[in-house]
Design a protein that fits this description.
567 residues; alpha/beta; 8-stranded mixed sheet; 21 helices
């Protein structure tokens, strides 16, 4: 970290407000919220809070934001808290509300960028929780490129039922078990009341925890932040440290794009693969990379994946939750192990002002005798479980999570559905049987609109005992809690005229995770004839947030971003 004079003016943006007679009106406004003469000589720090009572993931973040503000004050800054929105995927799941989930990432990024840009702030502490807040915060940080630190609000503690740990995915899967008659309404209600015991994001290696771990691997978080539970007292201290760090970053001219380099994104992919994270990491890391002006593609995920073993026994396909990982050393201990095996770029800069290698040298290793993380020679798989498939059904690519699977090839007959509701009704009616390839289309970024997750469907399939016996393919996406033989992010999507729009009932499909191919057994000539007859359906939502999103959004293979075609 470069040494500079303590007299350096750290008001890299806010000088336009804090100096000059013509800015008296601007300063008058700030005096009304507590600023005084001395504050106008300090850097103005924005604390971007994602607090809300909408979801347990973020319900505690109001206090964390105040802790970050306190830290920024101690560090010599003049901090201000502002809020952005969030969507609780677990509440939006299974109905039309899920169309708003992925678009909320863009709203979060846009809103933080808007406030920081409008108020001429000098640095940012961003605190997130639920699935879209981490990538949304990091996208705005990449765009603004002002000294910044991201803090994760932390994971929820597991619920307890009948002496066993449960979480939100158990609630979804209990629905299928109830429909099958495996549990009664009383047991179903017990699951409902026990799954989420308090604050924090969903507990397994689902999307929120996946992206928190990725943020730490990118170097944008306090070491350990991704795995410290929401209710742990140290989470408050992390926020205070983050606030203090902003002044150090300003003094030493350390900016997000100095940290979020191509090598840092490779570190993030490495950690996601080793932990068996959510397929949503593809969407979000591509989008964050775009915001940080880093060229990242599916090919980079594949190149990194080949060398990274899957070593975590974490839900949804494993036994443990993120709180268990925290107890045995957390993400820093996993990264330390990966670094020892030469899989982490140690020279990457981080928000601490130190390199990743220097941070990891200070980290403790995994606890002796722990069982959450496997030794390398006992890895669940020799390479990462999140794979890209291509073929005549997905020319731009598709994404699958092959964890907990005993089969690598699936060949079956297609049953096509043009909405999640149609698919749900077919599952409930017992129409989906072993050997089926269920295709759910027109649910991509444009077609959904909003690329809704299919957790309700995958959970119903698993709950009915069809996990691994039925393949599910979609141009939509899956929750980090989904498991089974599922392929998402098929691109181009149906609404854009992709090949998935041409699939018909009775077609045969071959999915091979070893050759990484997804093949529709229909000739090229037949597909051309079907395409000639295909008509693009009208937009489901031609106005408002979803209408704008559908008009602007890119392919999922490019991160489903809304500012990709502005050049």
């Amino acid at each position: 970290m470069r040494n500079v004079s303590e007299e350096k003016d750290l008001r890299i943006k806010s000088r336009v407000i804090s100096e000059g007679a013509n800015r008296v009106p601007n300063r008058s406004m700030l005096r009304a919220v507590g600023f005084n003469d001395e504050d106008f000589q300090k850097p103005m720090i924005g604390v971007a809070s994602t607090w809300s009572e909408v979801t347990p993931c973020n319900v505690h973040i109001d206090q964390l934001a105040r802790d970050a503000k306190s830290g920024a004050e101690n560090g010599g800054g003049a901090p201000m808290i502002f809020n952005t929105i969030m969507v609780a995927d677990g509440i939006a799941m299974g109905h039309n509300g899920m169309s708003y989930s992925l678009p909320s990432r863009e709203v979060i990024a846009d809103s933080i960028e808007t406030v920081v840009g409008a108020e001429a702030l000098d640095g940012i502490v961003a605190i997130g929780g639920c699935d879209k807040t981490t990538p949304g915060c990091l996208m705005s940080i990449g765009r603004l490129n002002l000294p910044s630190v991201y803090v994760y609000g932390g994971s929820i503690k597991p619920g307890k039922l009948d002496g066993k740990d449960i979480d939100i995915v158990n609630s979804f899967e209990a629905v299928g078990q109830y429909q099958q008659g495996e549990i009664d309404s009383e047991q179903l209600h017990k699951v409902e009341c026990s799954a989420c015991p308090g604050p924090g994001s969903c507990g397994g290696m689902y999307t929120a925890n996946t992206m928190a771990a990725a943020a730490e691997a990118l170097g944008m978080s306090i070491p350990g932040s991704s795995s410290t539970p929401a209710v742990d007292a140290y989470k408050n201290e992390e926020c205070r440290q983050a606030g203090e760090l902003i002044t150090d970053l300003l003094k030493n001219d350390i900016y997000p794009r100095d940290i979020m380099t191509k090598e840092a994104f490779e570190n993030a992919i490495t950690v996601v693969m080793a932990l068996g994270g959510s397929t949503n990491a593809f969407l979000h890391l591509l989008a964050i990379a775009r915001s940080a002006d880093v060229d990242l593609t599916y090919d980079d995920f594949e190149r990194v994946r080949q060398n990274v073993p899957h070593i975590a026994d974490l839900k949804p396909s494993g036994q443990y939750v993120f709180d268990d990982l925290f107890q045995v050393g957390g993400v820093p201990a996993v990264m330390k192990l990966l670094h020892e095996h030469g899989l982490i770029h140690g020279d990457c800069l981080t928000v601490t002002g130190k390199t990743m290698a220097e941070n990891l040298a200070e980290a403790k290793g995994l606890s002796e005798g722990q069982e959450v993380i496997y030794p390398f020679d006992q890895a669940k798989t020799e390479s990462g479980p999140l794979i890209v498939l291509r073929g005549n059904l997905a020319p731009e690519g598709a994404v699958a999570k092959m964890t907990g699977q005993t089969i690598t090839r699936f060949e079956g007959t297609v049953k096509v559905f043009d909405s999640e509701d149609e698919t749900t009704a077919a599952i409930e009616a017992g129409e989906i049987v072993e050997g089926d390839v269920v295709v759910v289309r027109y649910v991509g970024p444009k077609g959904g609109p909003g690329m809704p997750e299919m957790l309700s469907i995958t959970a119903m399939i698993v709950g009915r005992g069809l996990g691994g016996k039925v393949a599910l393919m979609t141009d939509g996406r899956f929750s980090g809690g989904s498991h089974g033989f599922v392929i998402g992010h098929i691109a181009p999507e149906a609404a854009a005229g992709g090949p998935i729009a041409l699939v018909q009932n009775g077609d045969e499909v071959i999915i091979d995770s070893e050759t990484q191919e997804i093949t529709l057994n229909v000739s090229a000539g037949e597909l051309e004839e079907r395409l000639a007859l295909w008509k693009q359906p009208p937009m489901k939502q031609p106005y408002g947030v979803l209408g704008k999103y559908a008009k602007l959004v890119s392919s999922s293979a490019k991160g489903a971003i809304t500012d990709g075609n502005l050049e």
